[in-house]
Design goal:
Largest sheet of chain B: none
Number of strands of chain B: 0
Radius of gyration of chain A: 22 Å
CATH class of chain B: Mainly Alpha
Number of helices of chain A: 12
CATH topology of the largest domain in chain A: Aminopeptidase
Number of domains of chain A: 2
Strand order of the largest sheet of chain A: 1-2-3-4-5-16-6
Shape of chain B: globular
Oligomer: heterodimer
Order of helices and strands of chain A: EHHEEEHEHEEHHHEHHEHEEEEHEHEE
Largest interface: A-B, 22 and 23 residues
Number of helices of chain B: 5
Number of domains of chain B: 1
Strand content of chain A: 25-35%
């Protein structure tokens, strides 16, 4: 087994080479490689991809997303692990372990992990090298029941009746739509709030974010959020292409985009900024900035957009938005508590991170 | 007791601790021929990491010298080093000798 380390500069070369993209298993997609190369927090010589080869065959890989975290009035570089895969046929040969320790060594034990599979979390726990951060507690608000999908998954024998299930779903959706109509009229969001939409962060939003991100762990600014919005890892496409079939992680989705929303209230000017991620029928607020007193308006803006854009689920990870959304009594079928796990290596064990705010898009969450 | 024997006994104690967290049918035998992470090894990634962490801790306590099993040099030959309990014992012996000579 040989481990090859790709820096940003190496990936730039790989993007221009043909050979790199010929392997049966791809360690990264072109889209994701381009995004890695454009990361404003990465230097040219930062390692961003570790690939394990055996007989010139890719048997494992691990991506690393260079980032900065902020505490004690200074920034501290780290790498978030992302896209950790090992060929199941060689799982007992220490490939995953080698990739993990190689990443730790390469980043002088300054590593972060966001989420991860159950298996990956087991490995991190066993290494005794990571501490868990207070996870942001959020909610999933379900606007569409999608009962036919769930029922047919559980009882495939009932496929013959799927037309009836779909009609029932449509009728149930109508109930939410009618209630939403009256809910919107009652609150008068369109009179009370105004919105401006962004495909990347403009000067006004950038200044607003900078005024509100001082307590954030990663303090993402104009350049960082614009990079995420314009360099996605997942592409909207009607079907998988050959390259996406050779890569283990998400690279294609029927609908995937980011939307920046500036929220304005009369007499108050800009009161909030939301960065929304829409993937298929789910919307997530990946970054949200506002003052506490404007939380109800910003939560209303998130709910209004989820209903208007006809998504089945809205995920909120900001506790102030969660609380305000509950108070707005928006029509929905169900809500479910969710949280996102974040881990940092023990090199940061003594850092005063308890009061740092994490966003739903921190780590690599914004990209999936 | 010879150093090699001390290393073997230490590794047996590591296996005792590892086996506490494994189902009885997956217990690792206290034998130098026991395969670890090679092709016929029975340790998954978490098991291998547990073995590494426990071995480093026990070596510091019982052999009186810390050893590092996660540096690039060891990682580059991980399948060789962790092929069997015996190959791991040999590697630790080599590390200790290098420290003494260095």
């Amino acid at each position: 087994m040989e481990i090859k380390t790709f820096t940003v500069a190496d990936l730039q070369l790989a993007l221009r080479s043909e050979d790199f993209w010929l392997s049966r298993t791809l360690p990264i997609t072109r889209q994701r490689a381009l995004s890695f190369c454009r990361n404003p927090r990465a230097e040219k010589d930062d390692p961003v991809l570790l690939v394990a080869y055996q007989d010139n065959r890719v048997i494992g890989y691990l991506g690393i997303l260079p980032d900065k975290i902020y505490f004690n009035n200074a920034d501290h570089k780290l790498g978030w692990l992302t896209g950790w895969w090992v060929d199941p046929s060689v799982a007992a040969k220490g490939v995953g372990v080698t990739l993990l320790y190689k990443a730790l060594n390469t980043y002088r034990e300054r590593i972060g992990v966001s989420g991860g599979s159950k298996e990956a979390r087991k490995v991190l726990h066993a290494s005794q090298k990571f501490i868990a951060l207070n996870p942001p507690k959020g909610i999933d608000i379900r606007f569409r029941l999608n009962a036919s999908k769930a029922l047919l998954r559980k009882y495939p024998g009932m496929r013959a009746f799927r037309v009836f299930f779909k009609i029932a779903d449509a009728l149930l959706d109508e109930i939410v739509d009618v209630r939403s109509f009256f809910w919107e009229r009652r609150h008068g969001f369109r009179r009370r709030l105004a919105f401006e939409y962004l495909s990347s962060i403009d000067e006004e939003a950038g200044r607003f974010i900078e005024r509100h991100h001082q307590h954030d762990l990663t303090r993402k600014g104009k350049a960082d959020l614009s990079w995420i919005m314009t360099s996605p890892w997942v592409v909207s496409a009607p079907q998988k292409d050959p390259a996406s079939r050779r890569y283990f992680f998400s690279s294609i989705s029927a609908r995937f985009f980011y939307l920046g929303v500036k929220v304005f209230a009369p007499d108050n000017g800009m009161v909030g900024f939301l960065m929304l991620k829409v993937r298929d029928d789910r919307m997530s607020v990946v970054y949200a900035h506002f003052e506490d007193r404007h939380a109800p308006s910003v939560a209303a803006a998130a709910l209004y957009h989820a209903l208007t854009m006809d998504v089945s689920t809205l995920s909120l990870y900001d506790e102030r938005l969660v609380k305000s959304a509950a108070g707005l009594r928006c029509p929905c079928w169900a809500t479910r508590s969710v949280s996102r796990g974040f881990f940092l290596s023990k090199a940061f064990a003594d850092a005063p991170l308890a009061d740092c705010r994490l966003h739903g898009g921190d780590g690599d969450f914004a990209f999936y | 007791m010879a150093v090699k024997e001390k290393i073997t006994q230490m590794l047996f104690r590591v296996l005792d601790e590892l086996n506490q967290f494994r189902p009885r049918e997956e217990h690792l035998k206290k034998d130098l021929e026991t395969p670890l992470a090679g092709a016929s090894g029975r340790l998954d990634s978490a098991g291998l990491i547990n073995l590494i962490v426990l071995t480093e801790q026990k070596a510091a306590q019982e052999l009186g010298r810390p050893i590092l099993l996660t540096d690039d040099r060891t990682l580059s030959r991980i399948n060789e080093v962790f092929l069997t309990l015996g190959s791991l014992a040999d590697y630790i012996h080599l590390l200790l000798n290098e420290k003494r000579d260095g």
